[in-house]
Design a protein that fits this description.
The chain is an alpha/beta fold. It folds into two domains: 243 residues, Alpha/Beta hydrolase fold, catalytic domain (Rossmann fold), CATH 3.40.50.1820; 180 residues, no CATH class. The chain has 19 helices and eight strands. It has an eight-stranded mixed β-sheet, sandwiched between helices. The protein starts with a helix and ends with a helix. Belongs to the DedA family.
């Protein structure tokens, strides 16, 4: 039945392709990218009396795309010649870096040069704000002003707060998306959803670690407009960007940007007022910024100034951290600690999310060993490696010392899965297992979160060192467990020692001479 549905899904996708309907203002030009000609799609508004109008280029968000910014663009087009590049056009090319912010800024620069635009205002929404910042830095002499609309900002306030952790999570989602795209009967729905491979690749290649240094180099007047309850980019991001840019102006509105409040007249009115000030040379530049703002911009990041997550955003982060424990318990706990250090996630919720994720995951490892492990031992090659007598002796030893080993294993990376799996495999008491396991994560989780809060970002470097040797640590752990079962346990009984002596004598007779 499933194969039939999958076949029908592919038939529908091939036979009835979704037509790409051009937008109302859509146009295209051919530009040079990576030594070849490519079509660059954009949307152009306010072409009436174009020569008498200043040009405003708005870069859309990678997720909400062109549709989200269109209401503002239509209102601004009454006074300005507005151009909105299609983000997919900014990802054209064949090089591996085409999904980076820097590559998009380079292609935008070529597009502007192709249109022979000398001076222009630049705006960016969400992810597009980072592209706008990069482009403004590349063309300081041509970009008259910069407008950040619900823009992303510093690394600490984005997603799980760390570049490597965010990249890892997006990388892990990529194979699942491919699996959904090719092996699930979605009947073409994948091609209509916003969370797709292009989005994931853009976010995987997003590096915000230099954002602080970059925005401090801006000379142009900067306007930051943000929704107070933006579910995609928290208001704290806009406030930190405002602090870092001494010549910036911050305006935030009540409501949720994701509920299409970008079409509210106040957004376009505030942008119009700002652009009027820039055009009439009344806007503040870096040279005319106040000493107080300049000093404030030089201060280090202070997590105490950041408002902790609440409501839906808090629930989403908790669920994400719980899910992340599936791939790496250590990385999930460190991510939670970094979010706490950044003031985004309260310590209690950081510990709670990690604790619940680990509890659910590792309890299932025990049951996996109990339900799957025993039948597997009766099959080749496992039955050659571990005999029934060995298993019985291991069960006896586990009853005596296994729970202590479970507690210690929590603090030894690479030893947790084999120990928990072995607990189920050897049919140890679940109640006893759960008590020792519960105590171990109750001690380990707040301890590691607390250490991460104190140490901060260097914890990732320590984890990277561990990951370099993780395979060998795991291999060594498996070897130790095998030696304990095959040598250590038999050595505890007279009969076992005799059997080992006989085996050693036979081995020596065969190979020792």
């Amino acid at each position: 039945m499933y194969l039939f549905l999958l076949g029908m899904s592919w038939f529908v996708q091939i036979k009835f392709t979704f037509p790409e309907i051009p937008g109302k203002y859509q146009k295209s030009e051919t530009i040079q990218v990576d030594d070849h000609q490519t079509e660059f799609i954009f949307h152009e508004l306010g072409t009436e009396n174009e020569r008498s109008k200043s040009t405003l280029i708005i870069i859309p968000d990678v997720y909400y795309e062109y549709d989200a910014i269109l209401p503002i663009a239509e209102k601004l087009s009454e006074k300005y010649h507005v151009i909105i590049p299609e983000l997919n056009s900014l990802q054209n090319g064949t090089n591996s870096d085409r999904f980076t912010v820097e590559s998009k800024a380079d292609i935008l620069d070529r597009f502007v040069a192709h249109l022979q635009i000398d001076n222009f205002h630049l705006a960016g929404n969400g992810y597009g704000g980072l592209v706008a910042v990069e482009s403004a830095l590349k063309s300081q002499d041509r970009v008259q002003s910069l407008i950040l609309i619900g823009s992303l900002g510093v690394q600490e306030l984005r997603f799980l707060g760390n570049h490597h952790i965010n990249r890892s999570l997006y990388s892990l989602s990529r194979p699942f998306l491919n699996l959904y795209k090719y092996t699930f009967p979605h009947f073409g729905r994948y091609h209509q959803q916003k969370f797709n491979i292009n989005y994931v690749d853009a976010m995987r290649n997003l590096d915000q670690r230099d954002f602080r240094d970059d925005v401090k180099k801006l000379d142009q007047p900067v306007l930051i407009v943000h929704a107070e309850n933006d579910q995609n980019v928290p208001l704290s991001t806009a406030k930190e960007t405002y602090r870092l840019i001494p010549q910036s102006k911050l305006i935030f509105f009540e409501g949720d940007q994701n509920n299409n409040l970008l079409n509210h007249n106040r957004w376009s009115n505030e942008i119009n007022l700002f652009l009027d000030d820039v055009e009439n040379q009344r806007a503040i530049t870096k040279d005319s910024a106040s000493e107080e703002r300049i000093k404030k911009a030089e201060e280090p990041f202070n997590a105490e100034d950041i408002e902790a997550l609440q409501g839906k955003a808090l629930i989403v982060i908790i669920l994400l951290i719980m899910s992340f424990t599936i791939f790496s318990e250590d990385l999930a706990v460190i991510a939670a600690g970094l979010l706490t250090a950044a003031g985004i996630l309260p310590f209690f919720y950081a510990v709670l999310s990690c604790f619940l994720g680990i509890l659910i995951l590792d309890t299932n490892i025990y049951w996996l060993g109990k339900k799957v492990g025993n039948p597997a031992l009766k099959r080749i090659p496992f039955k050659w490696l571990i005999k029934e007598d060995d298993l019985n002796r291991a069960q006896n030893l586990y009853e005596m010392y296994g729970m202590e080993l479970l507690f210690v294993a929590r603090f030894i990376p690479g030893a947790r899965f084999p120990m928990y799996f072995a607990a189920g495999l050897l049919k140890s008491s679940f109640k006893k297992f759960f008590i020792y396991f519960f105590i171990s994560i109750a001690v380990w989780t707040p301890l590691l979160v607390g250490i991460t809060v104190l140490i901060g970002q260097p914890m990732i470097q320590y984890l990277s060192v561990y990951q370099d040797y993780a395979f060998w640590i795991l291999l060594f752990t498996v070897l130790i467990i095998y030696l304990v079962v095959k040598v250590g346990i038999p050595m505890t009984t007279v009969r076992g020692r005799r059997r080992l002596l006989v085996k050693w004598s036979r081995y020596w007779q065969k190979w020792g001479r």
